[in-house]
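FAQ: What does the model actually see?

It sees only this:
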Amino acid sequence: MQVFGQNLAAKKAEAIARINELCGRVRACYITDLPGQQAVYAEKQAAARNFLENGISSALLDAEVGITGDTVRDVAAAIMEKADEWRAVISKVENCRLFHVSCVRGSGSVAAVNDAVADFDKHLSRLADELP
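And it is asked to produce this:
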């Protein structure tokens, strides 16, 4: 457990920054965290959905044939499967993050902040063990 000093407002800010950073690290295990990459993922998912619903391919899907899957349909299915996995991960991580940030914000003492951070550490560790 990280030990915090005595300034409550500063320690709350430090604790929240730590919670956000560690949750970001967990998320980064499931995505490529590069500038613009989230837009690429969104475009791929839209293209995959369009192909699966309407049979219309795109350059993004075509570029992955032979890498992500053997056919455009395989590529589209793989992209949608990854998107579903990502949604499951982010919902759990975001729930953990929001809950513990709220606990820190509601803490009335440095000791309570320290306890909230210790609880977060335990929760995130359990969560990391449960995630795919």
